[in-house]
Amino acid sequence: MAKAGTTSGVDSVRVIIVDDQELFRRGLTMLLAAEPDIEVVGEAGDGQAGVALAESAAPDVVLLDVRMPRLSGIEACQAIKELVPSAKLIMLTVSDEEADLYEAVKSGASGYLLKDSSIEQVAQAVRVVADGQSLISPSMAVKLIDEFKALSRPDPQGSGALRITDRELQVLRLVATGMNNRDIAAELFISENTVKNHVRNILEKLQLHSRMEAVMYAVREKLLDLP
What we know:
Blueprint lengths: L12 E6 L3 H12 L4 E7 L2 H11 L3 E4 L8 H11 L4 E6 L4 H9 L4 E4 L4 H12 L4 E2 L1 H14 L14 H11 L4 H8 L3 H15 L4 H10 L7
Parallel strand pairs: 1-2, 1-3, 3-4, 4-5, 5-6
Helix pairs in contact: 2-3, 4-6, 7-9, 7-10, 8-9
């Protein structure tokens, strides 16, 4: 059953929390509600209720557990992306399984955090994902790339890779390490807006839908020189 939370803020990020552990869910709601730029607009205790809540509340960001009754977090993620395409999804879970991470990415999740993350990390993830970026726990970044390496196969055509400029390739390599736009900008001594433009160009050129898919493509095309 969904329950609305409260905070105030003119330009706040509207968030719903979907988790079957009531104590964790309520605690996270209270902590995020204390952030001046985040508004918790509802919570749900299972995947099916979470989908219904997302459709009615149209949040900016949805925090989802992976394993829940009635509908798993992965299934709920897919349903929410279809019903509310503008919503960004973050999986917040105890699962550090590579398969769960990969399925979350394929289902449209923009973030993947472990439940041992601090409230500051969760709040920052909400802001970053709402801004159109992706974020995963550092401990999962290597697993993500390993999973892409294991599941990807070389493409004998390989023509798309030639359309990526040297600078775009630099940006793509840094995206693959889990860096956000601000960190990439600092690393390459360019503006954050320039990084955003490069990422957008990469996705458009390769006809991809997310930063995660771009990493998958780069691994398949052997563009990243990963160990």
